[in-house]
Specification:
184 residues; 3-stranded parallel beta sheet; 51% helix; globular
């Protein structure tokens, strides 16, 4: 509790389980940054998840739809809204908790060099039977109106090239360091 901000890689995590663990940590005072929100997984087929989201899109204020509810299409905003629903966001405690949360698609520059963690209780590989159908949030978001899937994919490809080069240089440095300590 009250550690430095934790960077969580959302890839391969179940949507609701991730949201509930993060909400609980936010309420206890922890700052959390979620990256690669588009790689989050929802259980169930794409068909079922799309029907559920399209049903949600139909829900609107009858007299004036501008009054809400607002239907966010971005995977980061979908995850943010799920977490908000698990917080008392209309009270001061919940507002402060929500202010401690940041959610991003991809891994933007300040966080691409930091160590990323996973939440074992929310990993689909540990929580879901291998035979179950799953939906990746980026595909669902793209099919309901998110327009930046290709942009995020391009930026992620560039980041992976950069981090691959960094990792190779790090391996060479570590090998030289190990060789020097063996001599001494």
């Amino acid at each position: 509790m009250f550690e430095k901000p934790i960077v969580v890689d959302c890839r391969g995590h179940l949507f609701g389980r991730l949201a509930s663990v993060v909400a609980k940590e936010l309420l206890s005072g922890q700052k959390i940054i979620l990256v690669r929100a588009e790689e989050t997984i929802r259980s169930g087929s794409i068909y079922r998840n799309k029907l559920r989201y399209l049903s949600f899109l139909r829900k609107t204020t009858n007299t004036n739809p501008v009054h809400g509810p607002f239907h966010l299409r971005s995977p980061a905003k979908m995850l943010w809204r799920a977490i908000r629903g698990m917080l008392p966001h209309k009270r001061a405690r919940g507002k402060h908790a929500l202010a401690r949360l940041k959610v991003f698609e991809g891994i933007p520059p300040p966080y691409d060099t930091q160590k990323r963690q996973v939440i074992p209780n929310a990993l689909a590989a540990l929580r879901l039977a291998p035979s179950r159908k799953v939906t990746v949030l980026s595909r669902l978001a793209h099919e309901v109106g998110w327009k930046h899937q290709a942009t995020v994919a391009t930026l992620e490809a560039k980041r992976k090239v950069r981090s691959g080069a960094y990792f190779q240089a790090k391996k060479e440095r570590d090998a030289l360091k190990a060789k020097a300590t063996a001599i001494v």
